[in-house]
Amino acid sequence: MSEPILDVRDLSVSLVGSGPPIGAVDRVNLTIGRGEVFGLVGESGCGKSLCALAIAGLLRQPMQVTGGQIMLGATDLATIPQRQMRRMRGDDVSMIFQEPMTALNPLMTVGDQIGEMFVLHRGLSRRAARKKAIEALDQVRVSSPERRINAYPHQLSGGMRQRVMIAIALACDPKLLIADEPTTALDVTIQAEIVELVLELCRAKGTAVMMISHDLGLVARICNRVAVMYAGQIVEERASAEIFNHPSHPYTRGLVDALPRLGRRLERGQRRLTEIAGVVPALHEFPEGCRFAARCPRVTSECTAASVPVTQLDGGGIVRCLHHV
Ligand SMILES: Nc1ncnc2c1ncn2[C@@H]1O[C@H](COP(=O)(O)OP(=O)(O)OP(=O)(O)O)[C@@H](O)[C@H]1O
């Protein structure tokens, strides 16, 4: 891997309320190289978004970072004050979300929202920022950018809004872009265009990407390395070709088997491809031993006796399973 830009060590996020804290993300380790495209996958509710929000300094009560370090270069994002984090967000690390409307201000034109990045982070005048906003809109392939900068978010299509959010996120050339399911809410035809756009712009700017998705197929195709998350823990992390072709953890195997492939047909009465039976446990239901045990085809009594340590794999990477292949 190239020089690391992000080094997350033993990150824990917990729900902190009136009772004892409830762990949601459990000692997660992640390293992303400069300009690398890194994937984080897992079903809904595995803790991917909480990891992302923790890194971007956007966790909200009752969720809190309760342990570990988030090193972006020499700065530990887990401990810096909110004011410093606000400065670094946009400048060093940016995030785009599944639903752009949650991040865009409905009362401001898209031009003002993009321009604000240049005013706040680069100290440009309003007039100079407006010019840069037009260039940024052009870069994300919004046609007639001089006209479109005067539009409000609700006047644009979902795909256009996502492009605006990408323009805002990349305006100040951050070192890391976290993309949390950026295409899930979009029409299938636009999804590939948006992913390509993100990759192309980040490649040109040397920005590393952390792509979060429930779609292992997408992530394996575009990422150098992939981490698979289950019930708040990383259960496997390897080069994406390895993960895709020789999944080591039974959960990863299940995700691969659930992918649609050319020539595979649904059996009569089967609604989806081989889904992993069962559901991700809720936070207060995490079991003592392996968290995947209740759904695992390889489970034995050892799996539920004590928590499962991480094993280094011969070809590089890690897996958290007593019966990995
Ligand atoms: N503010 C909150 N209060 C209570 N529980 C929460 C909160 N935010 C997240 N959780 C719980 O934490 C767990 C992890 O959630 P998270 O959103 O990180 O999952 P995810 O893998 O990103 O799923 P998705 O793809 O659906 O966003 C889930 O069980 C979720 O219900």
Automatic annotation (TrEMBL):
- Fetch the Gene3D superfamilies from UniProt: P-loop containing nucleotide triphosphate hydrolases
Q: Which GO terms describe its biological process?
A: peptide transport; transmembrane transport
Q: Which key words are in the record? A: ATP-binding, Cell membrane, Membrane, Nucleotide-binding, Transport
* Residue stretches making up the ABC transporter domain: 6-256
Task: Give one Pfam family.
Answer: oligo_HPY
Q: Where in the cell is it found?
A: Cell inner membrane
User: Known InterPro entries for this protein?
Assistant: AAA+_ATPase, ABC_Ni/Peptide_Import, ABC_transporter-like_ATP-bd, ABC_transporter-like_CS, Oligopep_ABC_C, P-loop_NTPase
Q: What are the recorded GO MF terms, alphabetically?
A: ATP binding; ATP hydrolysis activity
Look up the record and report any one GO term of the cellular component aspect. plasma membrane
Its record classes its membrane topology as: Peripheral membrane protein
Q: Which NCBIfam families match?
A: oligo_HPY (TIGR01727)
Entry similarity comment = Belongs to the ABC transporter superfamily.
Entry protein name: ABC transporter ATP-binding protein
- Tell me which species this is from: Paracoccus aurantiacus
